[in-house]
Amino acid sequence: MTGVLGRGVMTLLLAAGAALAWAQTEVGRFESSAGPLRVVELARGLDTPWGLAFLPDGRMLVSERPGRLRIVAADGSLSAPLAGVPAVHARSQGGLLDVVLGPDFERDRRIYFAYAEPHGRGARTAVARAVLDADALRLSAVERIFAQSESPGGGHHWGARLVFGNDGMLYVTLGDRFNHRQRAQDLDSHLGKVVRIAPDGSVPADNPFVGRAGVLAEIWSYGHRNVQGAALHPRSGQLWTHEHGPQGGDEVNLTLAGHNYGWPVITHGREYVTGWRIGEGSARDDVTPPLLQWTPSIAPSGMAFYTGSEFPVWQGSLFVGALRGAMLVRLSLDGEKVVGEERLLGELGHRIRDVRQGPDGRLYLLDESAGRILRVQRP
Question: Which class is domain 25-377?
């Protein structure tokens, strides 16, 4: 291979090799109950990554809070932003948030995403669906299928995790918007709720409050502060969530139809400035208690049950990312009980925004602090 053409091809090959090496950069090795862990940087250059979904061909779809969706190739290269994403309220904690594939993605190419939608003088958590053309880097047939009933000012507590149930219905987590926490107990409000809708946004007939006067029929559960982790239990198919407390009182919950989870009346949380206890106590007969609560707060975000073969001893564990805690947390379970906790990767000191199990059985993390995707694997 000689001449200008030969040199050009060789340059491309060397560049491709360098890109692959860069994409597989080792971040470090860490000890764990499953033995040594190798953490690899798969991709970087993301701006506040929030949600991660695996496409059937092995590529990844990643949301960036400022309002961009990108495709991440197997070698870690980032696509240009996808066209067709609607305008988002990208302020404070708001913006483009979670993204998931629809239950019939291989047939209809539909994805679903949650975002802070500008509305009136404020903004609200909304959900849209669209048809993804990953090769053309665009969305089409974009359709908003749900929006919170209120659109208050302020930039905090959007919730916005999305999970499809085994029945094809979509769970959407909705924050209390910080300054409106009392509305988390009101059933005529979407603030501080988990809602359950059909893929087209309609209300399933078996929702717990259907037909009840003065109650929003989308509501699945209530009394939540800011749910930023949600996943289906791999055996029972039940929805598990976790939510942020203020100073203390982060919770892991088995999130059941029609149940009240207490916020802001029943909580372990304390006020930020004064440190005073919030509400009337930490338990009440009509409030479903958490499976686990963290005090002080770790600020949990992202959640995944582990069923893979990369770490056989961890099968059945629940993994949770931590923002303020800057770590990955593994919870050991015995049925519906949390029986142990292991704190991992704290040496990194980075905010873990999302946790996913990949199709290869490895764990994938969105490192919000460094704008990158990490892969956790065996050495």
Answer: mainly beta
